[in-house]
Specification:
Chain A: This is sn-glycerol-3-phosphate transport system permease protein UgpE. Chain A: Keywords: Cell inner membrane, Cell membrane, Membrane, Transmembrane, Transmembrane helix, Transport. Chain A: The chain crosses the membrane at residues 7-34, 75-99, 106-124, 168-189, 210-235, 270-291. The structure holds two protein chains of two kinds. By secondary structure, chain A is mainly alpha-helical. Chain A has one domain: MetI-like fold, CATH 1.10.3720.10. Helix content of chain A is 70%, strand content 0%. Chain A contains 17 helices and no strands. The relative contact order of chain A is 0.15. By secondary structure, chain B is an all-alpha fold. Chain B has a single domain (59-293), classed as MetI-like fold. Chain B is built from 13 helices and two strands. In chain B, β1 (41-43) and β2 (50-52) form a beta hairpin. The longest helix of chain B has 32 residues, at 65-96. The chains are: A mainly alpha, B mainly alpha.
């Protein structure tokens, strides 16, 4: 604070407090609505004093939408995406920063371009690929005449087929296939002093050794930031899981919410819907609260 | 920027890049190419091969009033929600940056909304803005028929915009606050010594210095409004009433997967891709300028 500005300070507090209410109110309303019974939740206006049915509603929502396994699925997927990103991006960044090979810039640009087109806009063909991941390779074999050749020589007709619908790999892999993390690592690797590399090489460390024993431990902060962001991002995915998981046993918590939208006919069971919403909201909120530092850092660094 | 010291065995180097390359080839380049191919052919959903139709898919889409309605809805949604989310976040970040008592609390709490999944917050707002229960019901009681997102397209659009802006206020706040905090304190203090007040300092020092962030967020908010809106629309309005909130990504989804019109959906995807690529190019040109700016 530079000078005394009592009036402005008053308005600053007022506006910030309004902003605070604006951000917190939806959480509070959801929690309160989740504690009412059917009659109270549909009262106009709804009472802002918590009701007594909180645990009952949570249990009902839990069983109606079968949230236990769905939350587990969400966790597996979010961890899978976060881990996949953290590992694969590190490998790729190491390759484009620490090696000189022909086509390096081409690889750099091939990866860079993936930043431009999010999954949502190429959703239909990506779905087709996941229905049979080997389709691209089959097509390549067909086009180059290799499958004809193989059929002539060995008599085996080449039919590559591997469907990933309703599987964790089908959920996770397409979400990992972007460049977001690669550039975060690249920026960091470029700041690692060359002297460190020289010293390691002088001590006889090869590329693998240097990567595993020096570079990775140094990038722990980056990993935490990237992991946090990617976990949240994956947890909050909706369109992709909705398409890929036609089978209930692989459905995600977030997509299951749709089951809880109250019917138009009959008394709307908002208390159950809000209890379910609260359960689904909570894990990412806990991650944000606990990992705030990494979350903010990762967000700004990946510009995601 | 390049490394001076590198490793010699470049075959190992390529091996490190292989997993990523396989992934992006299979799940990015192939589908993107496939989208282009589909958009130029007519595919039978139940098999039977593709017929080359040239630009016919684009022609039929661009002559379809529903599609233009969807583009208009997306642009209205993008403009209003981006404007709301950015202005509110800018004001809150500027005030938090004054570092009065309690600013740490705001710094923590104002970020929360961004962590929430779009469908979950959509569900919360569906309840809060429901015409028969929740809080808009109070308004309806005094003013019957004032608010009904189930019947009135403008109300539905307003609900979707409110839900989306709520989430992105948190996102924009993080970036604005980081930008404000990057401004050297001495600049502010020197200006104060010269007798400028808080408002004047904001207008002449802080605002010009954060224009790069404003521009960056503008592009990100618009592109996100095209993508992240899907979950909100699906839960809150399902594109209705009467297609009033049938935004572009939602239309691609419903045409492609519910209407089984792969070719039409692919052509729509291509148009959306071009739009997003154009925005991204604008952003990169700008990032170069930002580097120059410093």
């Amino acid at each position: 604070m530079v000078e005394r500005t009592p009036i402005l300070n008053f308005f600053t507090h007022l506006i910030l407090f309004a902003g605070f209410i604006f951000c917190v109110a939806p959480f509070v309303i959801v929690a309160i609505a989740a504690s009412h019974n059917l009659k109270d939740v549909n009262d106009v206006p709804m009472s802002l004093l918590p009701g007594s049915d909180f645990w009952v509603n949570i249990q009902t929502a839990w069983t109606t939408a079968d949230l236990g396994p769905k939350l587990l699925n969400s966790f597996i997927m979010a961890f899978g995406v976060a881990a996949g990103k953290v590992i694969i991006s590190a490998l790729t960044a190491f390759s484009i920063v620490y090696f000189r090979y022909p086509g390096r810039m081409l690889i750099f640009w091939l990866i860079f371009i993936t930043l431009m087109l999010p999954l949502e806009v190429r959703i239909v063909p990506t779905y087709a690929v996941v229905a049979n991941v080997l389709e691209p390779y089959q097509a390549i074999l067909d086009l180059t005449g290799l499958s004809w050749l193989i059929e002539k020589v060995s008599g085996v007709q080449v039919q590559l087929s591997l469907g990933l619908l309703n599987s964790y790999s089908g959920l996770i892999l397409p979400l990992v296939a972007t460049a977001t993390g690669t550039f975060l690592y690249r920026q960091f690797f470029l700041t690692v002093p060359d002297e460190l590399t020289e010293a390691a090489r002088m001590d006889g460390a090869g590329a693998l050794r240097f990567f595993a024993d020096i570079l990775l431990p140094l990038s722990r902060n980056n990993m935490a930031a990237l992991g946090t962001i990617m976990f949240l991002w994956a947890w909050n995915q909706y369109l992709w899981p909705l398409l890929i998981t036609t089978d209930q046993s692989h459905a995600m918590a977030v997509t299951e919410l749709k089951q809880l939208i109250p019917n138009v006919g009959g008394a709307p069971e908002w208390h159950i819907a809000m209890a379910g919403t609260l359960i689904v909201m909570l894990p990412p909120l806990i991650v944000v609260v606990l990992m705030q530092r990494w979350f903010v850092r990762g967000l700004i660094a990946t510009e995601k | 920027m390049e490394k001076r010291v590198t490793f010699g065995r470049w075959t190992i180097g390529i091996l490190f890049a292989v997993p990523q390359l396989l992934l992006i080839f299979t799940f990015f380049y192939w589908p993107a190419g496939q989208a282009v191919y589909w958009s130029l052919t007519l595919q039978q959903p139940w098999g039977g091969g593709n017929i080359w139709v040239g630009l016919d898919n684009f022609r039929s889409i661009l002559s379809n009033a529903d599609y233009w309605n969807s583009i208009t809805a997306s642009l209205v949604f993008a403009a209003i929600s981006t404007g709301l989310a950015m202005v509110i976040a800018l004001v809150l970040a500027a005030l938090t940056d004054r570092q009065l008592a309690g600013s740490r609390l705001y710094r923590v709490v104002l970020i929360w909304p961004y962590g929430i999944a779009a469908p979950a917050l959509a569900m919360a707002f569906r309840f809060i803005l429901a015409p028969e229960a929740g809080f808009m019901a109070v308004v309806n009681k005094f003013w019957p028929g004032f608010w009904d997102p189930g019947l009135d397209g403008a109300d539905a659009m307003a609900s979707v915009i409110i839900a989306f802006s709520w989430k992105y206020v948190g996102y924009n706040f993080i970036f604005f606050l980081a930008a404000f905090q990057a401004i050297p304190r001495s600049l502010i203090e020197a200006a104060a010594m010269d007798g400028s007040g808080v408002i004047r300092r904001f207008r002449d020092i802080q605002f010009p210095l954060i224009t790069p962030t404003i521009f960056f967020l503008l592009v990100i908010n618009i592109t996100e409004s095209f993508q992240d809106s899907f979950g909100i629309v699906d839960i809150m309005t399902a594109g209705g009433p009467a297609n009033a909130t049938n935004l572009m990504v939602y239309k691609i989804y419903s045409d492609g997967f519910k209407g089984l019109d792969y070719s039409g959906a692919a052509a729509q995807s291509i148009i959306l891709m071009l739009l997003i690529i154009a925005l991204t190019i604008v952003q990169f040109r700008f990032i170069e300028r930002r580097v120059h700016y410093r």
